[in-house]
Amino acid sequence: MIKPHRKHPLWLAYLLHRLSGLGLALFLPAHFYLLSLALNQPDRMDKYLGWGENPLVKVAEYGLVFLLAIHLFGGLRLMAFESLEWSNNQKTAAACSIVAALAISTIFFLRAI
C-alpha cells in the first residue's frame, strides 16, 4: 500500500532532490581523484581525458549535469518552501524546475556531442 504522503506531487521533487544529492556525493571522490592526477601524474590524466571522448561517457556527463541542475533547483525549492507561505503554485514551480534541469542538461549534452 502506498503511503498517503507519497501520493503528493511534491514528494517526487523531494525524492529527486535526495537521489541527486546521493548521486553527486558518489561522483565527488572520482572527481577529486582525477584532479589529483592532474597535479601528480599528468600523463595518466591525459589518458583519462582521452577516455572522455567515449559516447557512453558523454551520456554519463549528461546525467551528471542533470543531477547537478535538479539538485540546484530542488534546493531553491526547499528554500522557498521554508521561507514563503504555502500555495498551489509551488507544485508548478517544482515541475518547472524539473523541466529547467532537463533543458540545461540537454543543452550541455548537445554541445558535447
UniProtKB/TrEMBL annotation:
InterPro entries in the cross-refs: SdhC_prok, SQR/QFR_C/D, Succ_DH_cytb556, SuccDH_FuR_B_TM-su
Bound cofactor: record note: The heme is bound between the two transmembrane subunits.
Protein name, entry field: Succinate dehydrogenase cytochrome b556 subunit
GO molecular function, one term: metal ion binding
UniProt entry tagged with the keyword Acetylation: no
One Gene Ontology biological process: tricarboxylic acid cycle
Necessary cofactors: heme
Gene Ontology cellular component list: membrane
Family assignment from sequence similarity: Belongs to the cytochrome b560 family.
Binding site for heme: H71
Subunit and partners: Part of an enzyme complex containing four subunits: a flavoprotein, an iron-sulfur protein, plus two membrane-anchoring proteins, SdhC and SdhD. The complex can form homotrimers.
PANTHER family, per the entry: SUCCINATE DEHYDROGENASE 2 MEMBRANE SUBUNIT SDHC, SUCCINATE DEHYDROGENASE HYDROPHOBIC MEMBRANE ANCHOR SUBUNIT
Keywords, alphabetical: Heme, Iron, Membrane, Metal-binding, Transmembrane, Transmembrane helix
Membrane-crossing segments per the record: 21-39, 59-80, 92-110
Function summary: Membrane-anchoring subunit of succinate dehydrogenase (SDH).
Presence of the UniProt keyword Transmembrane helix in the record: yes
Cell compartments where the protein resides: Membrane
